[in-house]
Amino acid sequence: MPISALKGDLVTANHILFQQGVLDAFGHVSVRDPDRPDRFHMSRALAPGLVTVEDIVELDFDGAAVRPVRGSLYVERYIHCEIYRLRPDVQSIVHSHSPTVIPFGISQVELKPVYHRAYFLGQGVPVFEIRDVAGARNNMLVNDQTRGQALAQVLGKGNVSLLRGHGNVVVGPNIRTAVTRAIETEVNAKLQLQAVMLGGPINYLSAEEAETLGAELARTQPSDKRGADRVWDVLKQQAEAARRLLQGT
Ligand SMILES: [Zn+2]
Hints:
The protein is of the alpha+beta class. It contains eight helices and seven strands; from the N terminus they run H-E-E-E-H-E-H-E-H-H-E-E-H-H-H. Helix 6 (about 175-200) packs across helix 8.
């Protein structure tokens, strides 16, 4: 996909994730540049629901904007810098504070896949503890390179990491898959919470089932793209309709 089209998808990603309640006034989504893999694109610091293509900026892995920026940059852009640096396979990243996921980062209950669409959670997701890198007196934000590196290490080869008392980060091999996964992570958290409240042992997806689903999608749908496109198309329509309603056009 050429960068101009990718920027259009990035704007849509902001609107979809806002509309779905994954992003609120905070959080961000980025995409790696297809021609310059050592750079990525994201909005300047702005509520995701308000992002337009003029707000998209290009950044390097030190968190610096390639061109002068109108306004400021997201203080937590180092999440994106350090994951892209460590994971060449990752093409898109979502950092959100999606609410239902947060309890799994602060309790003893591990976030694990309870339904088939969330197979990418594997056998559970790691929790990033900011005190380990920033000490007891910290502001909870991944707002420098050291913290970004520590988070990227905790994520490892996985698709999702929780940030204790803060939110989560979701990665994907393309932007549509990353967006779909961020939504499915929130949905899985809701379902798992409901199952926990019902009581008794929970019948999670097994490692074999998660692996089989992942391998099947990788074989039949390169980068999980067909499934993600199906979700994308309908959620894009919904997000655009909501924006038109808000703008009175
Ligand atoms: Zn955050």
